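Suppose you are handed only two things: the residues of a chain and a line of SMILES describing 2-acetamido-2-deoxy-beta-D-glucopyranose. What would the bound structure be? This form records exactly that question and the answer produced for it, so the two can be stored side by side and reused later without any lookup.

QUESTION INPUTS
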Amino acid sequence: MRFSLLISPALPLLSLAHPSQMPRDTSSIPPYRGPAHNAVDSPCPIVNAFRNHGMIHSNGSFITKQAVMDAMGKLGIDSQLQNLLASGAVMAGQYARENDKATIPWDNTPGFTKEGEWFNLNDLDFHDFVEHDASMSREDAALGNHVEFSPKVWSQVLDVFEGKEKTSIDLIAKAMNVRYQDSKARNKDFKDEYRLKTAILRYGEQAMWTQVLAKDVESGEVSVADMKLLFEKERFPDNFTAHPPNSITGTTVNTMVPELFWANPGKGDEIRQIGIGNAMGFKDLLHNVNLKDFWHPHQLKEKVLGLYDEKKDGNVPIGDIPATDNDTR
Ligand SMILES: *[C@@H]1O[C@H](CO)[C@@H](O)[C@H](O)[C@H]1NC(C)=O
Ligand SMILES: CC(=O)N[C@H]1CO[C@H](CO)[C@@H](O)[C@@H]1O
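ANSWER OUTPUT
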């Protein structure tokens, strides 16, 4: 099964060996040195960790697309996925500057441009573009500070990992649901704002940090201590050995996203909220949208509605979503 949402797995690996058989790069991550005194923050622990390790400017300002791509490369992320993620950051920067943090003009989304290929870390704060509700470690924008790490929000996640040494797909999915339910219960904007793109970002993010920190990219098993270091201190573990080049790709991420989704005890509720209909299935949907649609939400919506229409002919794929919603908390 191939999921083309984040990326199509087209780039041939440059090396003949499978990445997991190559020696890990033990020297690529510079030591932690903390943010500069005038540093700006993003709501993303990994990007802040790049800053804190001096992999991008330690003040978080004027980060070129290439600089953040190089930093991702050092974690073993391949160039296509680097490009997708960095493009999103650059676009968030364009929105933030052009719209002065006003409403996002969803229907006039600019394309990928060559101009302005840089961003500030705090451009990613722009609510509901990259930054989203039901984060694992930040409060919702409507409820408080959506940029800084929130010990209160994070404690909900930690409760799920209580007494465990390692994370797993099941535990991460469970923690995601706890955050989803909390956000839904407390945030009056949730019903309007939590949609397909939010879900894809949320699941994609969990796949990303998990794969960066895990010994085995697709296992979902990360030392809970390392996870805490990343979220709480925004740093990589000491003596962190990053994966070799091209280990983390659109394919590895797109494989884990539906795994997390299936494992989520609240997926029935989430499917209804994101409006893709019970029967269609998240997996089926991921298979049918692509990179360009993703950063162009208007097109994404059209595509989803188009798909939904096509499926109304009675030939509805059931996907792997169980018929009965297991909508427990
Ligand atoms: C941040 O650091 C970069 C690179 O050293 C520099 O060009 C830029 O002026 C700094 N920005 C601020 C706001 O200090
Ligand atoms: C296990 C290991 O290699 N530990 C080393 C981690 O890095 C510090 C210096 O930053 C060394 O002192 C440790 O020996």
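WHAT STANDS OUT: The domain at 35-311 is CATH 1.10.489.10 (Chloroperoxidase). The radius of gyration is 19 Å.
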